[in-house]
Amino acid sequence: MLNLEYKKQVPFSAKQMFDLVMDIEHYSEFLPWCEKAEIMQRVSDNELVADLEIKFKSLKAKYTSTISAISNPPNYSIDIKSSHMFFNYFISRWDFIENDKGSLVIFKFNLKMKLSFFERFLVSSLDTVGNEIVELFTQRAKKLYKIK
Fold first, then answer.
1. Residue 116 carries which DSSP code?
2. Given 3.30.750.24, 3.80.10.10, 3.30.530.20, 3.40.50.150, which CATH number is that of 2-145?
3. SS (H, E, C) 2-58
4. 43-75 pLDDT, tens per residue?
5. CB 3.0-4.6 Å disulfide test: which of 21, 56, 76, 80 passes with 96?
6. Which GO biological process categories is it annotated with (predicted)?
C-alpha cells in the first residue's frame, strides 16, 4: 500500500489550479505518460466519470475514474476514485488552498495493487512521479495563465 502527499505553493489562484486539474481532456497535451483522457459521463454538476489511458515504463493501462469536484471558494478540492483490474483501490485528492501568495496545492494518493509484484514495480517510481505531477500542472498553469 502506498500513501503519498505532495505540497507546492504556486502563484496562481486556487480556482485557476482547480480548473486546470478539472480540464481532464487536455491531460495528454502535458502529462507525458497520458496517452488519452476522455470524459465518459457527466453524472452531475460536480461529478463525472473519465477514462485515462496511460503508459508508464513498460506498463500500459486504461482505467476509469469517478471525479468529484468540491467548490467552496476561496478553496477547492477534487476527489478521485479510480478502478482497474490491477487495483484494490486507487484514491487521490487535490486540495487548493487560497492564500496571499496564490495558493497551496496539495496532492495525495492512496494506492493498493492487487498483485504485490506490480506494487513493488511502481513503488520506486511513484514517489518522484507525485512531485512530477504537481510540477507538470504548475508548468501548465504558467503557460496558460502567464505569470505577471
1. H
2. 3.30.530.20
3. EEEEEEEEECCCHHHHHHHHHCHHHHHHCCCCEEEEEEEEEEECCEEEEEEEEEECC
4. 999 999 999 998 877 778 888 999 999 998 999
5. 76
6. cellular respiration
